[in-house]
Amino acid sequence: MRIVYFDESGDDGFPSYSSPLFGLTSIYMHYLSWKENYEAVLDFRKRLKTDFNFPVKLEFHTKYFLLDKNPYKDLNLKNDEKKEIVSLFCQLISELNLKVINTVIIKERLANPKFEVLNTALTYSIQRIENDLESGSNPNSRFMIITDPGRVGKMRKTTRKIQRINFIPSKYYTSNYRKEIKYLIEDPLPKDSKQSYFIQISDLISYLVTLFTIRNFDIAELPNRLKSYTRFSEIKNWLNILKPVFNLKATRSNEYGIVYHPK
User: Where are the beta strands (DSSP E) in 10-129?
Assistant: First the structure.
C-alpha cells in the first residue's frame, strides 16, 4: 500500500490563466515508511527552529518563502539563509524513502481551448504511479491519494473517470489503447496543507520544477524578487539534489524525469 500526496504550482486555468505553467507533483511512499519519513521531517523542522528560528508548525509555502511574502517576512531571514534552508530541505527530501513524479503543462504550446489542464496532469501522474507499482515485486499493491482540499472535487472527477475508461497514446501506433487505472483505492482525500509536511514537500518540489522549466525553456523570467538573488544554476542544483528520489522512468525525455505536455 502506497500513500500519495499531491500539490501544485501555478493555476490550472486555460485558455485564460495567470501563470504560463501548471506543475503537479506527487510524492508516494510505502505505508511502512510513513512513520520514519515523518519523524525525519519533524526532526528537520526542529533544527530549522534552532538554527533559523523558523517555527516548527508554520507551513512551508516555498513560493511565498522565497519571495519574502507574509508570514515569512517577519522572520527577517537573509537571502542567503533562505537559499540555504531550501538546499537543506532538498537534501532532507533526497534521503527520505519515497518517490516523486512531476508533470508540467506548458500552456503556450496548447492549441485546444477546451484543454483540461488539471485533468491531464493528474492522469499522467497517476498512470506513472500505476506503472511503477505494476512493474514492482508485489502485483497486489494499491495506492490512495491525499491532497489539499482546493482541487479535490476536480481530482475526484478525474480519478473516478480513469478507473472506468482510460486511453493511453501508443508509442508504436497512431491510435490509443485502453488501460484503466486499477490500483487506486478510494477517492482523493482532503487534508489542509498546513497540517501536512508531505503536501508541503510536494509544494516545494513543484515550485522548484516550474522555476527550472520557465528558465530552461525560456518561457518567462523568474519573479523579480527571486531574480535579484537567485541564479538559474542554483535552481538546477536544487533539482540535482532531489534527483535521487525522482522517478526517472516517468519519462526518458529529460534527465529529471519531468513529464511535459505538450512535448
Answer: 21-30, 99-106
